[in-house]
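Support request from a user on the community tier.

User writes: "When I paste my C-alpha coordinates into the form, the page sometimes reloads and wipes my input. The last time it worked, I copied everything first. Here is what I submitted, just in case something in the input itself triggers the reload:"
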Protein backbone atom coordinates (compact mmCIF):
# COMPACT_ATOMS: atom_id res chain seq x y z
CA UNK A 1 0.00 0.00 0.00
CA UNK A 2 1.42 3.36 -1.01
CA UNK A 3 1.67 6.41 1.26
CA UNK A 4 1.66 10.09 0.34
CA UNK A 5 4.27 12.28 2.01
CA UNK A 6 4.92 16.00 1.90
CA UNK A 7 8.50 17.17 2.39
CA UNK A 8 9.34 20.80 3.18
CA UNK A 9 12.99 21.78 3.40
CA UNK A 10 14.13 25.33 4.21
CA UNK A 11 17.79 26.32 4.47
CA UNK A 12 18.57 29.93 5.41
CA UNK A 13 21.95 31.69 5.55
CA UNK A 14 22.22 35.08 7.29
CA UNK A 15 24.93 37.74 7.06
CA UNK A 16 25.58 41.02 8.89
CA UNK A 17 25.55 42.97 5.63
CA UNK A 18 24.74 42.28 1.97
CA UNK A 19 27.21 39.86 0.37
CA UNK A 20 27.56 38.45 -3.14
CA UNK A 21 27.00 34.78 -3.94
CA UNK A 22 28.49 32.30 -6.37
CA UNK A 23 26.24 29.75 -8.12
CA UNK A 24 24.98 27.14 -5.64
CA UNK A 25 24.34 23.44 -6.19
CA UNK A 26 21.14 22.32 -4.50
CA UNK A 27 20.09 18.68 -4.04
CA UNK A 28 16.69 18.62 -2.33
CA UNK A 29 14.50 16.84 -4.91
CA UNK A 30 13.54 13.20 -4.16
CA UNK A 31 14.84 10.71 -6.69
CA UNK A 32 12.00 8.92 -8.47
CA UNK A 33 12.00 5.22 -9.42
CA UNK A 34 9.65 2.24 -9.24
CA UNK A 35 9.10 2.83 -5.50
CA UNK A 36 8.81 6.63 -5.42
CA UNK A 37 6.74 8.92 -7.63
CA UNK A 38 7.23 12.69 -7.40
CA UNK A 39 3.82 14.35 -7.69
CA UNK A 40 4.91 17.96 -7.21
CA UNK A 41 8.18 19.79 -6.81
CA UNK A 42 8.91 23.47 -6.17
CA UNK A 43 12.08 25.37 -5.22
CA UNK A 44 11.82 29.05 -4.27
CA UNK A 45 14.97 31.09 -3.68
CA UNK A 46 15.47 34.51 -2.10
CA UNK A 47 16.97 36.90 -3.20
CA UNK A 48 16.07 36.97 -6.89
CA UNK A 49 17.90 34.13 -8.63
CA UNK A 50 17.97 32.18 -11.84
CA UNK A 51 17.99 28.40 -11.72
CA UNK A 52 18.27 25.44 -14.02
CA UNK A 53 18.26 21.70 -13.42
CA UNK A 54 20.85 19.14 -14.43
CA UNK A 55 21.86 15.55 -13.68
CA UNK A 56 25.21 14.95 -12.03
CA UNK A 57 27.56 12.03 -12.71
CA UNK A 58 25.30 9.77 -10.60
CA UNK A 59 22.11 10.99 -12.38
CA UNK A 60 20.94 12.85 -9.27
CA UNK A 61 18.73 15.89 -9.90
CA UNK A 62 20.69 19.04 -9.10
CA UNK A 63 19.41 22.61 -9.22
CA UNK A 64 22.04 25.21 -10.15
CA UNK A 65 20.95 28.45 -8.46
CA UNK A 66 22.57 31.78 -9.35
CA UNK A 67 21.61 34.65 -6.98
CA UNK A 68 21.52 37.87 -9.01
CA UNK A 69 21.82 40.53 -6.29
CA UNK A 70 23.75 40.91 -3.02
CA UNK A 71 21.69 40.19 0.10
CA UNK A 72 21.86 39.76 3.85
CA UNK A 73 19.83 36.54 3.63
CA UNK A 74 20.01 33.61 1.24
CA UNK A 75 17.09 31.19 1.56
CA UNK A 76 16.20 27.99 -0.27
CA UNK A 77 12.62 26.82 0.26
CA UNK A 78 11.76 23.46 -1.32
CA UNK A 79 8.48 21.57 -1.13
CA UNK A 80 7.75 18.13 -2.56
CA UNK A 81 4.84 15.74 -2.55
CA UNK A 82 5.64 12.10 -3.26
CA UNK A 83 3.85 8.79 -3.45
CA UNK A 84 5.96 6.12 -1.78
CA UNK A 85 5.12 2.55 -2.79
CA UNK A 86 7.83 0.98 -0.66
CA UNK A 87 9.64 -2.27 -1.37
CA UNK A 88 9.84 -5.34 0.86
CA UNK A 89 13.60 -5.55 0.44
CA UNK A 90 14.00 -8.61 2.65
CA UNK A 91 11.79 -10.54 0.24
CA UNK A 92 13.83 -9.66 -2.87
CA UNK A 93 15.52 -12.83 -4.10
CA UNK A 94 19.31 -12.83 -3.94
CA UNK A 95 21.03 -14.75 -6.74
CA UNK A 96 21.99 -18.28 -5.60
CA UNK A 97 25.71 -17.60 -6.04
CA UNK A 98 25.47 -14.58 -3.68
CA UNK A 99 23.26 -16.05 -0.95
CA UNK A 100 26.27 -17.11 1.11
CA UNK A 101 29.38 -15.10 1.97
CA UNK A 102 32.00 -14.94 0.59
CA UNK A 103 31.01 -14.64 -3.05
CA UNK A 104 32.38 -12.94 -6.13
CA UNK A 105 30.64 -10.49 -8.44
CA UNK A 106 30.69 -11.40 -12.09
CA UNK A 107 33.29 -9.64 -14.26
CA UNK A 108 30.52 -7.62 -15.87
CA UNK A 109 29.12 -6.52 -12.50
CA UNK A 110 32.58 -5.61 -11.20
CA UNK A 111 33.09 -3.36 -14.20
CA UNK A 112 29.83 -1.52 -13.53
CA UNK A 113 30.33 -1.43 -9.76
CA UNK A 114 33.97 -0.32 -9.89
CA UNK A 115 33.43 3.17 -8.35
CA UNK A 116 31.62 1.70 -5.33
CA UNK A 117 34.02 -1.14 -4.44
CA UNK A 118 37.28 0.52 -3.23
CA UNK A 119 37.26 1.79 0.38
CA UNK A 120 37.44 5.56 0.76
CA UNK A 121 39.65 5.18 3.85
CA UNK A 122 42.00 2.24 3.14
CA UNK A 123 44.11 3.06 6.21
CA UNK A 124 41.08 2.34 8.41
CA UNK A 125 40.54 -1.14 6.99
CA UNK A 126 42.63 -3.06 9.60
CA UNK A 127 40.53 -1.75 12.51
CA UNK A 128 37.32 -2.28 10.52
CA UNK A 129 38.31 -5.89 9.78
CA UNK A 130 38.91 -6.49 13.48
CA UNK A 131 35.48 -5.05 14.33
CA UNK A 132 33.54 -6.91 11.64
CA UNK A 133 35.19 -10.25 12.48
CA UNK A 134 32.54 -10.83 15.15
CA UNK A 135 29.90 -11.01 12.40
CA UNK A 136 31.79 -13.48 10.19
CA UNK A 137 31.87 -17.28 10.56
CA UNK A 138 35.07 -18.81 11.87
CA UNK A 139 34.73 -21.52 9.25
CA UNK A 140 32.47 -22.30 6.31
CA UNK A 141 29.94 -19.82 5.00
CA UNK A 142 27.03 -17.82 6.29
CA UNK A 143 24.15 -16.00 4.67
CA UNK A 144 25.24 -12.71 3.13
CA UNK A 145 22.09 -11.02 4.32
CA UNK A 146 22.69 -12.17 7.90
CA UNK A 147 26.09 -10.46 7.97
CA UNK A 148 24.62 -7.21 6.68
CA UNK A 149 21.70 -7.40 9.09
CA UNK A 150 24.06 -7.97 12.03
CA UNK A 151 26.21 -4.96 11.10
CA UNK A 152 23.12 -2.80 10.59
CA UNK A 153 21.67 -3.84 13.96
CA UNK A 154 24.96 -3.58 15.87
CA UNK A 155 25.49 0.05 14.90
CA UNK A 156 21.95 0.88 16.00
CA UNK A 157 22.24 -0.93 19.33
CA UNK A 158 25.90 -0.46 20.30
CA UNK A 159 26.57 3.10 19.11
CA UNK A 160 25.11 6.32 20.47
CA UNK A 161 23.56 8.81 18.10
CA UNK A 162 24.82 12.37 18.73
CA UNK A 163 24.10 15.47 16.71
CA UNK A 164 27.16 17.51 15.74
CA UNK A 165 27.48 21.06 14.44
CA UNK A 166 31.00 20.56 13.06
CA UNK A 167 31.15 20.18 9.30
CA UNK A 168 32.11 16.97 7.56
CA UNK A 169 31.94 13.28 8.43
CA UNK A 170 34.00 11.31 10.94
CA UNK A 171 36.47 8.75 9.70
CA UNK A 172 35.16 5.20 10.27
CA UNK A 173 37.97 4.51 12.75
CA UNK A 174 36.97 7.61 14.73
CA UNK A 175 33.34 6.49 14.87
CA UNK A 176 34.48 3.07 16.09
CA UNK A 177 36.69 4.66 18.73
CA UNK A 178 34.00 7.05 19.95
CA UNK A 179 31.16 4.56 19.59
CA UNK A 180 29.00 7.54 18.64
CA UNK A 181 28.21 9.69 15.64
CA UNK A 182 25.61 11.15 13.32
CA UNK A 183 23.63 9.37 10.62
CA UNK A 184 26.34 10.34 8.11
CA UNK A 185 29.02 8.82 10.33
CA UNK A 186 27.06 5.58 10.76
CA UNK A 187 26.34 5.30 7.03
CA UNK A 188 30.01 5.82 6.20
CA UNK A 189 31.10 3.30 8.84
CA UNK A 190 28.87 0.56 7.42
CA UNK A 191 29.70 1.52 3.84
CA UNK A 192 33.44 1.25 4.43
CA UNK A 193 32.99 -1.98 6.41
CA UNK A 194 31.09 -3.77 3.65
CA UNK A 195 33.45 -2.43 0.99
CA UNK A 196 36.23 -4.03 2.99
CA UNK A 197 34.30 -7.30 2.69
CA UNK A 198 34.36 -6.95 -1.09
CA UNK A 199 30.77 -5.73 -1.48
CA UNK A 200 29.76 -2.66 -3.48
CA UNK A 201 28.18 0.12 -1.43
CA UNK A 202 27.14 3.71 -2.07
CA UNK A 203 26.24 6.64 0.18
CA UNK A 204 22.62 7.84 0.16
CA UNK A 205 21.19 11.16 1.36
CA UNK A 206 17.55 12.10 1.73
CA UNK A 207 14.80 12.36 4.33
CA UNK A 208 13.24 10.13 6.96
CA UNK A 209 9.54 10.01 7.75
CA UNK A 210 8.73 9.60 11.44
CA UNK A 211 5.10 9.34 12.51
CA UNK A 212 6.01 10.89 15.87
CA UNK A 213 6.88 14.13 14.08
CA UNK A 214 3.82 14.05 11.84
CA UNK A 215 2.38 17.39 12.91
CA UNK A 216 1.36 20.53 11.00
CA UNK A 217 4.12 22.55 12.69
CA UNK A 218 7.67 21.84 11.45
CA UNK A 219 10.40 20.78 13.88
CA UNK A 220 12.56 23.34 15.63
CA UNK A 221 15.18 25.21 13.65
CA UNK A 222 18.77 24.10 14.01
CA UNK A 223 21.37 26.90 14.14
CA UNK A 224 24.76 26.13 12.68
CA UNK A 225 27.81 27.95 11.38
CA UNK A 226 30.54 27.87 8.74
CA UNK A 227 34.22 27.23 9.06
CA UNK A 228 35.97 30.56 9.39
CA UNK A 229 37.93 31.55 6.30
CA UNK A 230 36.71 28.66 4.15
CA UNK A 231 33.64 30.56 2.95
CA UNK A 232 32.08 27.32 1.82
CA UNK A 233 28.31 27.13 2.22
CA UNK A 234 27.16 23.58 2.87
CA UNK A 235 24.00 22.27 4.51
CA UNK A 236 24.34 19.97 7.50
CA UNK A 237 22.96 16.49 7.21
CA UNK A 238 22.21 15.80 10.86
CA UNK A 239 18.92 14.63 12.32
CA UNK A 240 17.22 15.85 15.48
CA UNK A 241 16.10 12.37 16.62
CA UNK A 242 17.64 9.32 14.89
CA UNK A 243 17.50 11.07 11.52
CA UNK A 244 13.95 12.42 11.52
CA UNK A 245 13.15 16.12 11.36
CA UNK A 246 16.21 16.90 9.22
CA UNK A 247 18.05 15.54 6.23
CA UNK A 248 19.17 11.94 6.71
CA UNK A 249 21.82 9.52 5.45
CA UNK A 250 22.05 5.77 4.88
CA UNK A 251 23.62 3.43 2.29
CA UNK A 252 22.87 0.98 -0.50
CA UNK A 253 24.59 -2.41 -0.81
CA UNK A 254 24.51 -4.22 -4.16
CA UNK A 255 23.37 -7.84 -3.89
CA UNK A 256 23.14 -9.79 -7.16
CA UNK A 257 19.54 -10.65 -7.88
CA UNK A 258 18.14 -8.13 -5.37
CA UNK A 259 20.06 -5.11 -6.70
CA UNK A 260 20.79 -2.04 -4.57
CA UNK A 261 19.35 -2.75 -1.10
CA UNK A 262 18.99 0.18 1.37
CA UNK A 263 20.37 -0.17 4.90
CA UNK A 264 19.87 2.52 7.54
CA UNK A 265 22.20 1.69 10.46
CA UNK A 266 20.98 4.73 12.43
CA UNK A 267 17.57 3.11 12.79
CA UNK A 268 18.27 -0.50 11.78
CA UNK A 269 15.96 -0.17 8.77
CA UNK A 270 16.13 -2.11 5.52
CA UNK A 271 14.20 0.08 3.10
CA UNK A 272 10.47 0.54 3.56
CA UNK A 273 8.35 3.64 3.05
CA UNK A 274 10.10 5.81 5.67
CA UNK A 275 13.30 6.43 3.69
CA UNK A 276 12.98 9.11 0.99
CA UNK A 277 16.17 9.20 -1.09
CA UNK A 278 17.40 12.35 -2.77
CA UNK A 279 20.82 11.34 -4.02
CA UNK A 280 23.33 8.53 -4.00
CA UNK A 281 27.07 9.12 -4.37
CA UNK A 282 30.43 7.42 -4.08
CA UNK A 283 31.33 9.34 -0.88
CA UNK A 284 29.51 11.60 1.62
CA UNK A 285 31.15 14.83 0.46
CA UNK A 286 29.38 14.52 -2.90
CA UNK A 287 25.93 14.47 -1.28
CA UNK A 288 25.83 17.95 0.30
CA UNK A 289 22.23 19.28 0.06
CA UNK A 290 23.54 22.83 -0.55
CA UNK A 291 26.99 23.78 -1.76
CA UNK A 292 28.31 27.16 -2.87
CA UNK A 293 30.30 30.18 -1.74
CA UNK A 294 29.91 33.87 -0.93
CA UNK A 295 32.13 36.93 -1.28
CA UNK A 296 32.77 39.03 1.83
CA UNK A 297 34.64 39.13 5.12
CA UNK A 298 34.62 36.00 7.27
CA UNK A 299 32.96 37.88 10.13
CA UNK A 300 30.04 38.82 7.87
CA UNK A 301 28.60 35.34 8.25
CA UNK A 302 26.09 35.07 11.12
CA UNK A 303 24.23 31.74 11.00
CA UNK A 304 22.71 28.93 8.98
CA UNK A 305 19.27 27.56 9.89
CA UNK A 306 17.88 24.28 8.56
CA UNK A 307 14.25 23.27 8.92
CA UNK A 308 12.87 20.03 7.54
CA UNK A 309 9.32 18.70 7.85
CA UNK A 310 8.11 15.34 6.54
CA UNK A 311 4.46 14.51 7.11
CA UNK A 312 1.92 12.08 5.77
CA UNK A 313 -0.98 13.56 3.82
CA UNK A 314 -4.19 12.30 2.25
CA UNK A 315 -4.10 10.85 -1.23
CA UNK A 316 -3.74 13.49 -3.92
CA UNK A 317 -6.45 13.49 -6.57
CA UNK A 318 -4.02 14.78 -9.20
CA UNK A 319 -0.40 15.91 -9.21
CA UNK A 320 -0.07 19.53 -8.14
CA UNK A 321 2.64 20.50 -10.61
CA UNK A 322 5.21 18.03 -11.82
CA UNK A 323 3.97 14.47 -12.26
CA UNK A 324 5.99 11.49 -13.31
CA UNK A 325 5.63 7.76 -13.19
CA UNK A 326 8.73 5.80 -14.08
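"...and here is what came back when it finally went through:"
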Amino acid sequence: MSVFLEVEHVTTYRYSKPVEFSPHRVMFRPRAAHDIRVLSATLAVSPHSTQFWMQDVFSNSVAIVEPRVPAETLEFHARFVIEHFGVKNLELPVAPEAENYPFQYTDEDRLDLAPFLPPQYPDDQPVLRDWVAQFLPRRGTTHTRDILANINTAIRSDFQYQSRDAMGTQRPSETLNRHSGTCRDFALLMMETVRGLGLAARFVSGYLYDQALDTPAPPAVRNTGLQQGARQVESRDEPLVAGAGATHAWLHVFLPGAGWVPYDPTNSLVGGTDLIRVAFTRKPEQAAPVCGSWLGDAQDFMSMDVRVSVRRIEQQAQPASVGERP
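Agent notes: The reload is a front-end session timeout and is unrelated to the input. The longest strand covers residues 3-21. The two ends are 18 Å apart (CA to CA). Escalated to web team.
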